[in-house]
Design a protein that fits this description.
transmembrane, transmembrane helix, about 85% helix, mainly alpha, Growth Hormone, Chain: A, MFS, about 350 residues
Length: about 350
């Protein structure tokens, strides 16, 4: 049995999204059940975002120097440690430690898997990312319903499902991930610091890339509060139990799937710059409307349209950046983009 590179990329992307989203459906509610306040929950999220910000570029350089497979596997192991600690711990300091491992896991996987997919697959970039993101969002439908259903019995059950999918991803990568282009990378003798410096220099010297990085910072900043507190807000406005978040999460995933699909259709008529600008507009306009309203159905509808924009933006940005970045520093530059975006999420 063997998997083609694009098939493995889709499979691992699916599992990555599944193991994070099945717990994300009730994450804030899970923290509240442990006796934490919303303020403490926000501190934990801030620690996660800060650890990602500080680790992104160094871990991207690890992928450029030692290979994409090593970075992805190490990231999955870190996520496994994060999940086990987070599921079992009630003490705030242990949850903080778990968030650090979660941040490392995110960093080690982010640019590495994306770079591996671009460099080893013969699929066009537009098809690779729109398909992968659509599959992720479809998995979010099952995550929303299954996560809320499991949490209704026990808040730990979604984390057990996450751990199982994590182990499956580790086994797939160990068995099937190969790097056909390893010999093409010139970083066998360069130091990590040299790779980081050169990657930052490339980013600064290409104004278009840098502008996209800054736009990502502002989008992350504007989205952070809404995405963090929408769970308790919508549950309170609906006057229903936690189960309602499963239905809402599934609806979000459908909208994000449509957003990713819409990007592929838009590329038939417009260039990548126009598509990226349209996705940014979808996020900004509808998030403002969602914040201005204060009753359940109007807020829900505006959030659903906003989620279409959220499905469009990552796909449009991935295509835009990967068309302008060489393999040599791809993982580090993609990690630099992620680090800048995470800085916008760090709000306390």
């Amino acid at each position: 049995m063997s998997l083609k590179p694009h098939q493995l990329f889709y499979s691992v992307s699916f599992l990555q999204f599944f193991m994070s989203e099945i717990t994300g459906t009730t994450l804030i509610l899970f923290l509240l059940s442990k006796g934490l306040s919303l303020e403490n929950a926000n501190y934990l999220l801030a620690i996660f975002f800060l650890s990602v910000f500080l680790s992104e570029v160094p871990t991207g350089a690890i992928a450029d120097k030692y290979g994409r497979k090593a970075s992805v596997l190490l990231g999955l192991i870190c996520y496994l440690i994060y999940s086990v600690i987070f599921m079992q711990a009630n003490e705030l300091w242990l949850l903080m430690l778990a968030q650090i491992f979660g941040g490392l896991a995110t960093c080690l996987q982010s640019g590495a898997l994306e770079s591996w997919g671009v460099e080893n697959s013969d699929c066009p970039i537009e098809k690779l990312f729109t398909t992968a993101n659509s599959m992720q969002y479809i998995s979010g439908i099952f995550c929303g319903v299954l996560g809320a259903f499991l949490a209704a019995y026990n808040y730990s059950f979604p984390w057990i499902a996450s751990i199982i999918s994590n182990i499956a991803a580790i086994l797939l990568c160990t068995r099937f991930m190969t790097e056909n282009n390893t010999g093409d990378h010139p970083h066998t003798v360069n130091s990590l610091s040299a790779i980081i410096r050169e990657s930052v220099r490339i980013g600064l010297n290409h104004k278009v890339i840098w502008i996209v990085f800054i736009v990502g910072l502002f989008i992350s900043f504007s989205n952070s509060a809404g995405n963090t507190f929408q769970q308790p807000r919508l549950v309170a406005l609906s006057e229903q139990g936690v189960w309602v978040m499963g239905i809402i999460k599934a609806a979000y995933s459908l909208c994000m799937t449509f957003g990713s699909y819409l990007v592929r259709k838009l590329y038939n008529k417009y260039n990548d710059m126009v598509v990226l600008m349209l996705s940014c507009s979808m996020i900004g306009i509808w998030l403002v409307l969602a914040g201005a309203l204060n009753s359940f159905y109007p807020v829900l509808v505006t959030f659903l349209v906003y989620e279409i924009g959220r499905g469009m933006y990552p796909t449009a940005k991935q295509i835009f950046l990967n068309k302008r970045i060489s393999n040599e520093y791809r993982a580090t530059l993609l990690s630099l983009d992620s680090a800048i975006s995470q800085l916008g999420m760090w709000q306390v």
